[in-house]
């Protein structure tokens, strides 16, 4: 049985940039093991499998796999799959909202259209949970090929989750962000010494006059991802971190743009909108665009 898929580049409107995604439009009949094997074969940061809805209030069920593991939720797969479903007509033109059933529950996506074509999609993430500050700053820096002096001195390294936990690591400059190196052995040493096994999302505030708010990267060797060109599931936590720790004021947190993937030659622009009231975060939205690059069939499905 041939299995059709669409290949999107996500968090971009330019082909061959952004984050690659394989969307398998009909995952019925595939076991978890087969989905994992297909994701490993595609070898993108993630692949998605669309299934009939199984939860009231959702339009489809979607499962998300990295080359190494299934995820409870993720950003670029949700945005990219939204564009894919709109492309094939599974999302009605002009619809204001579409709701995915993910492993964390229903995830709504708000839609913006332009002359009958989907222009932009905003996924709503869970409100954040914040973990304790990580004291082993030198070890964290070493795990991404940097030194403690490269870290932003007056802000914590902290676990933050809006559905999927990340270790958020503030860096003192965009240049230091670009010097970081993904090293599976260094990650393993940090994990073994600290007991912390999380993807590391690290960022620096952009220089004055830059079009983007932050300059970011993400390493996740444990998920089979050496480096991710765009990480929507970490961008909600990033926005929450920026607001919580005073790097942005409340009005600035509603219009964040994170430049990620530039060091890989796959620049991605991830939009983040953090709403708050009286210091409490009330809504987390992550949005972007996606462009169709290719379509194909797996004949050995």
Helical residue percent?
10-25%
Apparent shape: globular
Amino- and carboxy-terminal Cα gap: 6 Å
Q: How many helices in DSSP terms? A: 6
Here the CATH topology of the largest domain equals Diaminopimelate Epimerase, Chain A, domain 1
The CATH homology group name of the largest domain:
Diaminopimelate Epimerase, Chain A, domain 1
Determine Rg (CA atoms, Å): 18 Å
At the first level of CATH, what is the class of the largest domain?
Alpha Beta
Q: Averaged pLDDT, please?
A: 96
Bin the strand percentage. 35-45%
Q: pLDDT below 50 for ≥5 consecutive residues: which ranges?
A: none
Give, in order, the helices and strands: EEHEEEHEEEEHEEHHEEHEEEE
From the structure above, extract its key features.
single chain, 301 residues, alpha+beta, Diaminopimelate Epimerase, Chain A, domain 1, 2 domains, 17-stranded mixed beta sheet, 20% helix, 38% strand
């Amino acid at each position: 049985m041939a299995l059709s898929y669409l290949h999107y580049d996500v968090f971009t409107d330019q082909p061959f940039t952004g984050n690659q995604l394989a969307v398998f439009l009909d995952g019925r009949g595939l076991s978890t093991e087969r989905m994992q094997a297909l994701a490993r074969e595609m070898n993108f940061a993630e692949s998605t499998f669309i299934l009939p809805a199984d939860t009231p209030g959702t339009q489809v069920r979607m499962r998300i796999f990295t080359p190494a593991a299934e995820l409870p939720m993720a950003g670029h797969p949700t945005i990219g799959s939204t564009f894919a479903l709109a492309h094939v007509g599974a999302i009605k033109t002009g619809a204001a909202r579409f709701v995915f059933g993910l492993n964390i529950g229903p995830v709504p996506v708000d839609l913006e259209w332009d002359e009958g074509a989907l222009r932009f999609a905003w996924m709503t993430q869970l409100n954040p949970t914040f973990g304790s500050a990580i004291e082993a700053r030198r070890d964290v820096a070493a795990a991404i090929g940097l030194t403690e002096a490269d870290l932003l001195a007056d802000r914590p390294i902290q676990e933050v989750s809006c559905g999927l936990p990340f270790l958020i690591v503030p860096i003192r400059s965009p240049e230091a962000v670009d010097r970081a190196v993904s090293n599976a052995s260094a990650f393993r040493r940090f994990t073994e010494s600290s007991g912390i096994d999380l993807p590391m999302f690290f960022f620096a505030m952009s220089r004055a006059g830059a079009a983007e708010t932050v300059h970011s990267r993400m390493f996740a060797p444990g998920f089979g991802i050496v480096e991710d060109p765009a990480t929507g599931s970490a961008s909600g936590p990033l926005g929450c971190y920026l607001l919580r720790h005073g790097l942005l004021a409340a009005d600035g947190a509603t219009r964040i743009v994170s430049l990620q993937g530039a060091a890989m030659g796959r620049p991605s622009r991830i939009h983040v909108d953090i709403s708050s009231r009286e210091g409490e975060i009330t809504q987390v939205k992550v949005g972007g665009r996606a462009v169709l690059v290719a379509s194909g069939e797996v004949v050995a499905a």
